[in-house]
Every structure is written in C-alpha cells, then in structure tokens.
Specification:
Length: 709
C-alpha cells in the first residue's frame, strides 16, 4: 500500500467515534416511564486534523409497574455538534444546563433552559480569574441545591495578585519569575482557585481560606450548599507531575462559604474522586499511598458526614484469585451511586479485561455486572462476539450507561438497570457499531519460569492479548508486532485500539503484553516491578512472545517487530538490545533511554528514584550509587548490541520524558552506522496526541515495519 492508502486506512479505524460521557433523565407518564439517555462522543476527523465533539440522544420506554424492564428503544435522532463546549452539567431538577464554552480567546458561561439561552457571562471579560480548568485532574462544574450558584475551578488571575497593588514596577520586576506548573499535559495549570457564580446577580467570587500550600480541584457542593468539598494537592516544596500519577500527597477538605476550612481525611495519603450519596449523608473517595508506584490499586473510603467517621468500603487487593475482583485502578465516574444510596458502581481493570462492578455498602460484597462474566467467558474458545472492555459512563435513576468494545469491535453504548439481589443485568444495545472487523483475538495467561520468578513476590503471573487477521495472508506465516504499553503501571485491556486495528488490517498480528507491574493483577504485581525495571518487565515481554509463538504456529517467528511509547518505548529498546537476534524492526515513541540523564529533566522525578528501587525525598541529591543503578537499568547500556533498525518519534514539548532521551540513542546508533530514523514533533508532548502527529506516526511506523519485515 502507498502512503495515501495507509493514511486512508488509519482514517477509517481512528475515525470511529468513542463515547466519553452520558447522562440520564426520567419522566413518569400514566402508562409508561420514559428514560432519555444523552451520550457525548469524540470523533477524529483527518480532514480538519481535529477531534469533533457531538451528542446523541435515545428514548427508552419502560413499563410503569416494572420500570426496570425496557419495552422499547426508539431510534436516535441525528447527532448534534457541541462546538466549543469545555464543561457542561445539568441542574438537580434537570431543568437547566450550564455550559462553559470557548469561542476564540473568550470563555463564556451559559445557562440554558427549555426556552433557550437564559443567561450568559463572559468569564474572560470579567477578569475575576484566569482560564477555567476543563481537565479531569482539577476540573469540575457543580450546581448548588437551590440552582442559584455554580462552582468551578480556574487559574488564579494574575491581575488580582501583588502586581496590581504594586503597580508597573512590580510587573516589570516579576515578569520573568519562574512559575511552577503541574507537569505533562497540565503545563497551563499552576495556581487553581475555587470560583462560585451567583446566577441571580451575575457575580463571581473566588473562595478564600484555601490553605496556602494546597492546590484545590474536583470540588462539589456540600449538603445545604453553604460549604464545598474539594481535593487539595500539596505543592510544597515544589510541584510534581500529576498526569497518570495517583500517588501524590493530597487530602479532602471542607470549606464553608464564611471562610472556615478543615481537612476531613487522613494525613500523608493520596485522595481523589469525592462522590456524595443521593441523600447527602455519605461521601466516598479513592485513597492510596504517597510516592512508590505512580499508579496503584486504590481503596474506596466512606465518610459519614454526621458522625465524621471514616471506614473502608473496598480495600486494596494484594493478590486476587483467578476470576475474582482485582481492585480499583481508575477514577470513579461522576455519578456512581444507586438511587437508594446503598450501592456504588464503577469500572476497573481485571487481568486482561475491563469490567463493571457493584459494591454493596452494607455487606461490602462486590458483583460483576457485565454479561461477559455472566456467560463465563473464560471458558470460551471463540471471543469474536464478546466485549472485552466494559467502561461505566454513568449510573442515574439506577440505569447504567456503559461503553463496550473489543479488539475487533469499535465502541458501542449499552444500557441496563442495576440488579436486585441474585439477579443478573439485562443489557440492551442502544446502537450497534458502524462496522465490525473480522479479526481473531485471544487472551494468553503467562507464567514466568522459576528463574524469572520474583523472590519478594513469588508466584505472580501476567497476560497478553493476541489479535490477528482471520485468514493467513502469507505461506510463511503472519508477521508479529509486539505492542508494549507505557506506564509501566497501566494496562492493555481487550478493547478497541485503532493502532492495533490498523496493523491487523494491514496483515500483521499484534501481541499486546500486560507484564508484571500492569494494573488489574493486584497490588503485589505492581510492587514486584519496583527496582526491577529493565529486567523483570523485559523478560516478561520476551516470555509472552515465546508463549504466543509456541501456541500459534501461524505466526512467523522470523518476522518480529516491537513498538511502544514511554515505558513501552523503554522496553522496546531494551528488547532489541538484550535479544538482538529476535527482532527485525523497532518503533519507539518518546522512550526512556538513559534513566540517569533523565533524572533532572522529568516532571516526575520521584518515579525515577522509585523505579530504580530507591526511596524518594524532595531533598534528594543524586549520588554515584543512584545514578549508576539508573544507568544499568537503561536501554543505552545495550545499544552496542542493537541490530534492528530503529524508528524514533519524539515530542518537542514532552515534560515527562525529555526528547533528548531519544536523541541520545539516535546519536549512538548514528555513530555506529545502525539504521535509525527520527521524527520530531515540535508542538506535541508525551502522548503525541495531536491528530496530525498520530497520522504521521502510524504512517511512518507501517512503512518502517513493511520495509524491514
């Protein structure tokens, strides 16, 4: 295929829409009960080099006397574009909708009702605060109970600081002072403030009395709307990157509108995702340890607001048994409570899958809710009609809205009511995917050999997902691309992945490996990787490759390539150095190449120490011992053995892994006459997430693999 055909193929697989949020409203009629499900989607458009945001609405008709039985799903109306919407939220009575919208350089707050636009405020022109935060780390938009106030988080206005009070001389003196930010993907976030809008008077107040050493976010109204709850991240002595890091010291606070602020969670912990029960009696939140693994298994805590006592609803799972709940590894949806406030619903990783779970507050029993689990999919040999990933978007009025997908099936929406005791969920598909693909996929369980077992955490296994064309396209077998996730504490669930789909469509088999340290296998698995990077994870990937080749004789062992980003790029470069005769090509995005030289340039310096097996402290000064250990765990030490041609793709604005890491390997390979090609994306960061960048990366990766395989 030529470049245009490859780009067109990528446009096909990446242009399939993905639901990102949903909401439910309900109306009781004499004979029936009507549910309206509104979903918001993101769709990539290569023509505009942008991602489109739109909504779609379904009407569900249920029996009046048995409202958990959906009688009819009416066809949806046409999709409606959501131009410039950054945040939106329905009021408690569902009669009003608040929207923070961006138009050009201006940010507007709009209030919509059934008759149209009721109120509009130009937040930028008022100049009370800086830009509104719309990220998932800090951002929020919360209605008060009386629907007369809105709460959100924004950057502190510089004009309200000492510069204004001291006049032009202060502006001139301080304009070059360094301003810390919150790292990769949060470079525009530095000093967040809590803002309250009085909708009756059109006035905005910045709440005072937030502790000076805390940056607030994820705020919501307390019962009665005379106080707010928020998560505060401690930023002294300096800020560390927050993206993909659930181990940052933080606490839960209650701030009354009269200025009294108190901490209502424990000390030296990491907290996130406060969610208030429907009756306002209980606040749940996620809790983890500070430092250590950058992402980890979290506990769910419940705070009784009347007594002030906190108890554990779900604890950290150290080592789950096969088929059991494996712990919480991701954020709670904004609406996660059952209508009676007795159950909490969420989705999380479990081995190589992602599933939806329900926990009963009283019994603390955890139930799987997907029909995949009900059908005992582990016994199936054919997974072509099974959804491997279930992600909860919302649960409201006890109606769950989930996004389901698998490696051969793009995302689709399904709905189902929360089950009563000993019942199963009856799931209804709102809309089938536009297209499904004739791929074969299977899940592998891999056990390390005895000499590769971890002495501190023995007996751990891991997994992988193999996706391949349904028909053999070459007599010598199918070439294999080993695809390694970053993190390292993340996961490749059995879900739709446009890169994997594009490669399989072109005739490659793709092996996605969840090595020890991946989420979904328990906290012991995560902890086992600490101090073992560059060794245990490398051996795990190679062991998974050998297992796949042994189990599937249609794969061509002489045509292996490896790709990955971040820690996945780190492992890719390790593999071609430690197993130089196994791989014929490598494509790495923003890889860690030399952990010693990365130490002073990464926004998560704590992880650089932890990954090498050292304790982190803010006042750490590098020693010969730590730098030597980091160097020995790095791919650069194996660079002389690399034989495979290497494609490097680097983001010029990467704050997590400096692009000079990739440049370091580039120069070494160049000086030794090894085939190497480097793509430089000056305006992109660590995730290389711009649409034009992703197209360029896929195209060049395919051409590189085709050339060298």
């Amino acid at each position: 295929m030529d470049s245009d055909q490859i780009t067109g193929l990528y446009g096909k697989v990446s242009g399939l829409a993905v639901p990102v949020s949903a909401r439910v409203s309900e109306e009781q009629l004499p004979e029936v009960r009507i549910y309206t499900v509104t979903a918001e989607w993101i769709q990539t458009d290569l023509v505009r080099n942008s991602r489109l945001h739109y909504s779609q609405q379904w009407t569900l008709i249920a029996d009046s006397n048995n409202h958990k039985s959906i009688r009819t799903v009416l066809p949806p109306g046409p999709c409606s574009p959501l131009s410039g919407e950054l945040l939106s939220e329905l009021s408690p009575t569902r009669g009003l909708r608040a929207v923070v919208r961006e138009t050009g350089s201006q940010q507007l707050l709009e209030i919509w009702d059934r008759h149209g636009l009721r109120k509009s405020l130009n937040l930028s022109a008022l100049n009370i605060h800086g830009r509104v935060y719309d990220d998932t780390q800090f951002g929020c938009l919360s209605w008060s109970e009386c629907e007369s106030k809105l709460l959100f988080v924004a950057e502190r206005s510089r004009s309200s600081s000492a510069e204004t009070r001291s006049g032009e001389s202060a502006i001139r003196k301080d304009r070059s002072v360094y301003c810390e930010d919150w790292g990769e993907a949060l470079t525009s976030k530095s000093v967040p403030v809590l803002c309250v809008v009085d909708l009756h008077h059109g006035e905005i107040d910045v709440l005072q009395s937030v502790p000076q050493d805390v940056s607030p976010g994820q705020a919501l109204w307390a019962p009665g709307s005379q106080a707010v709850f928020f998560v505060g991240w401690y930023h002294e002595p300096f800020r560390l990157g927050l993206k993909f890091c659930s181990n940052r010291r933080s606490a839960l606070f209650r701030l009354s509108l009269d200025g009294h602020c108190e901490c209502i969670s424990g000390d030296n912990l990491s907290v996130s995702c406060p969610r208030l029960s429907p009756d306002g009696s209980t606040l749940i939140y996620l809790q983890g340890s500070v430092f250590g693994p950058h992402n980890q298994c979290l506990s769910v805590q419940q705070l009784d607001l009347k007594s002030g006592k906190t108890s554990t609803m779900l604890d950290v799972v150290s080592r789950p048994q096969t088929g059991d709940f494996a712990g919480v590894y991701e954020a709670l949806p904004s609406h996660c409570w059952s209508a009676d406030g007795e159950k909490v619903v969420f989705s999380s990783a479990v081995r190589n899958w992602k599933d939806v779970f329900m926990v009963d507050r009283g019994t603390k029993k955890v139930s799987f809710l997907s029909d995949k689990h009900q059908r005992q999919v582990e016994d199936f040999s054919d997974l072509s009609k099974v959804y491997g990933s279930w992600k909860l978007l919302t649960v409201q009025r006890d109606l769950m809205v989930v996004c389901c997908s698998s490696p051969n099936s793009p995302p689709t929406l399904r709905v189902g009511f929360l089950p009563s005791a000993d019942e199963t969920v009856t799931w209804r598909t709102l809309q089938q995917p536009v297209v499904t693909f004739d791929y074969l996929w299977t899940v592998l369980d891999v056990t390390p050999t005895s000499d590769e077992d971890n002495l501190r955490y023995p007996g751990l296994d891991f997994g992988a997902i193999l996706v391949k064309p349904s028909h053999l396209l070459c007599e010598t077998g199918t070439p294999v691309v080993v695809f390694i996730h970053g993190g390292p504490h993340s996961q490749f669930p059995a879900e739709w992945n446009s890169t994997t789909a594009g490669l399989v469509e072109l005739g490659f088999a793709v092996l996605m490996v969840n090595y020890r340290g991946s989420t979904g296998f328990g906290q012991d698995s995560i902890l086992s990787l600490i101090g073992q990077v560059g060794s245990q994870d490398v051996k795990d990937v190679q062991r998974a490759v050998m297992a796949a080749l042994q189990n599937d004789k249609t794969l061509d062992p002489k045509r292996l390539a490896v790709i990955g980003g971040s820690h996945g790029g780190f492992l890719s470069c390790h593999l071609i150095g430690q197993y130089p005769d196994s791989y014929r090509a490598c494509a790495a995005r923003n890889p860690v190449i030399n952990a010693a030289t990365l130490l002073g340039t990464s926004d998560i310096v704590d992880w650089r120490y932890t990954s090498a097996g050292f304790q982190f402290s803010y006042d750490n000064i590098p020693t010969v011992e730590t730098l030597a250990a980091m160097l020995l765990k790095s791919p650069i030490t194996h660079a002389a053995q690399i034989k495979a041609p290497v494609l490097l793709m680097l983001g010029g604005k990467d704050r997590r892994v400096s692009p000079h890491q990739g440049l370091e390997l580039y120069k070494v390979l160049k000086s030794r006459g090894s085939p190497v090609r480097l793509l430089w994306f000056p305006e992109d960061g660590h995730s290389l997430s711009r649409v034009d960048t992703q197209v360029d990366c896929f195209l060049n990766t395919v051409l590189w693999l085709t050339q060298h395989l």
